[in-house]
Amino acid sequence: MALSRVVYALYQWLVLAVLARFGSTKMLGEYTFALALISPIIIFFQLNLRAFIATDANDQYSIIEYIATRTFTVIISLLFIIFISFFFSHSSEDALKIIFLVAIFKSVESISDICYGVFQKQEIMSRIAFSVILKSIFGFLGMLFCILIYQNIIYGAGLLAISWLIILFFYDLRKIDISISEVFDVKFSIVKKIIMTCLPLGIVVTLVNLRINIPIYFIERYYGVEEVGGFSVVSYFIVAGGLVVGSLSQAIAPKLAKGYFSEGIKVFSKMLLKLTFIAFCIGLLGILISLFFGRQILILLYGESFAELNILFFWLMLAGSVGYLSQFLGVALTVVREFKAQLYSSILGLIILIGMSVYFIPIFGREGAAISILGVNVAVFLFNLLYLKSFLKKSDINF
Length: 399
Known about the structure:
- The structure is a single chain.
- The protein is built from 14 helices and no strands.
- By secondary structure, it is mainly alpha-helical.
- It has one domain.
- Helix 1 packs antiparallel against helix 10.
- It starts with a helix and ends with a helix.
């Protein structure tokens, strides 16, 4: 599982590196802005069902019902994206095509995500690993081929979408052994019930994603799409670390749930403490690397023109280290079914981020965006920590 997350993180970074090295700053900016625009919409309509499935120890709903729900929300998300694209009618035709193709392959990924939730619950992590690695390889090779040969990111995004669709139908869906026709037999009342149950989770993960992307919107507004590309390739180091932390949290989530419901608060707390220590070590490693080797790494990976972003690199890794700690606390809150707490902390974080971005980004540019992310991550971490500590203390009394 951890290997697949690392490979996926590597794939995402390699795509950005290819665009930075062999494409153009405009290509890089348009692609990363499309991701920033589309990702919050896709993530909201995912409703974090994967986490809900993995921790559904009592089999509250069937696999077919979960897939039917995700299929419905994917269709709604695509319609919403088409509607949103009208607001970008001033953009070039190529930029709109990139937005549409990103929406397609992210929607395919969203269906696969449900399959991964099933595999995770069954603790067959090898299936997730194989699928993710397969998609990463084909996604990178397709993008590399189209950029090197045709200098065309649209072809690359299209080829990526086609390859992922093939893997979805011929591997992911086949491994859960269902009939597609059964999906359309599920009653809408059940789909609606799942949506309403998981809606707080969907809002929470969307607000978390917006904490990554809102600075990009401000940078694009004040400095243009090319500045977005520079910020994105550096900020991806946070995303890469987050994927590693996320893989660990997803792998441990079922065991964490069993520990809480079967073995008691003390066992649950010890497991959580170990996880947060791992997150701390990952964050600290990133900070030290950016501090002592940041400039050299940026030159090696992206070229001399990116060397000036070493200060941005440090601030982003500092912000990411705090975010990793919050990520594990968020998993713990999901396990104990305290969804509203995550909603409150995410809303608080979003408000703080917008306020800090309005002030810092026009003055300090991309570094101001990193400082804003750091401030938000600290606030959310403290909120989640204090809330979880209070909740466990009360639960220990009544357990």
